[in-house]
Amino acid sequence: MAVPKRRTSKSKTKMRRASNSKMVPTGFVECPQCHEPKLPHRVCTSCGSYDGKEVVSVD
């Protein structure tokens, strides 16, 4: 099994972990049909439309 030859310094550890903090959550966009907030590139949960067409029937 591979074992590091030298101890990883605090600086290197923190630099490696810092790249994860730069990731930001996806923003919401407005649905063009019902103007409700929805995730981009997803079917709208309130009206069931995607790309201007009704894909899912919502009760």
Per the principal axes of the C-alpha atoms, what is the gross shape?
elongated
Percent range for helical residues?
Answer: 10-25%
> Rg from C-alpha positions?
22 Å
Strand order of the largest sheet: 1-2
User: How would you characterize the largest beta sheet?
Assistant: 2 strands, antiparallel
Number of E-state strands: 4
Number of helices, counting only DSSP H or I runs of 4 residues or more: 1
- Distance N terminus to C terminus? 57 Å
What does this structure look like?
- It is built from one helix and four strands; from the N terminus they run αββββ.
- The model has no long low-confidence stretch (mean pLDDT 90).
- With 59 residues, the protein is an alpha+beta fold.
- 20% of the residues lie in helices and 14% in strands.
- A hairpin with a 6-residue loop joins β1 and β2.
- Strands 1-2 form a two-stranded antiparallel ribbon. The chain has a two-stranded antiparallel ribbon with strand order 3-4.
Offer a quick outline of the entry:
The chain is an alpha+beta fold. 20% of the residues lie in helices and 14% in strands.
